[in-house]
């Protein structure tokens, strides 16, 4: 009986927000990665495509937006370009710069990923009503903004 109580009662350590978030984050991360992998995407490729959704972006601007090492971005761009999800071309105004553009196929992949991720969210947060989901998102954004988390992927 006591063993059963211990499994349902949170200790001071397991009730810590960081511990709770780390536990749920591991589960959420695995589900999100698996959902994206079904479409051939990773978190890095998703963030990259997301920044291209509103229009072409210079390669240097992407490095700044994503907060990554240039070589890491080049690897992701090579992968996405190979999949036909984006295109790179030299900037006609400055031949030293590359401009990155999402393709129609990339926009479709991004929209599909959004649907897949919405489904993953529905599974992960089924215990929360819509207002609670909004509140959780706002609170997590507030924490992330205050942390200035740096590298996003």
From TrEMBL:
Residues 1-145 form the HTH marR-type domain. This is HTH marR-type domain-containing protein. It comes from the Bacteria. Transmembrane segments: none annotated. SMART domains: HTH_MARR (SM00347). It comes from Actinoplanes couchii. Gene3D superfamilies: Winged helix-like DNA-binding domain superfamily/Winged helix DNA-binding domain.
């Amino acid at each position: 009986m006591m063993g059963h109580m211990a499994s349902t009662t949170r200790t001071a350590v397991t009730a810590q927000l960081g511990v709770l978030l780390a536990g749920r984050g591991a589960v959420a991360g695995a589900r999100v990665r698996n959902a994206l992998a079904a479409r051939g995407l990773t978190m890095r490729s998703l963030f990259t495509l997301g920044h291209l959704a509103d229009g072409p972006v210079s390669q240097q601007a992407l490095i700044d937006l994503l907060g990554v090492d240039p070589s890491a971005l080049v690897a992701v761009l090579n992968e996405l370009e190979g999949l036909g999800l984006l295109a790179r071309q030299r900037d006609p105004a400055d031949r030293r710069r590359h401009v990155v553009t999402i393709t129609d196929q990339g926009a479709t992949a991004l929209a599909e990923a959004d649907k897949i991720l919405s489904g993953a969210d529905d599974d992960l947060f089924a215990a929360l009503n819509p207002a609670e989901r909004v509140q959780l998102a706002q609170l997590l954004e507030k924490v992330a903004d205050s942390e200035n988390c740096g590298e996003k992927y």
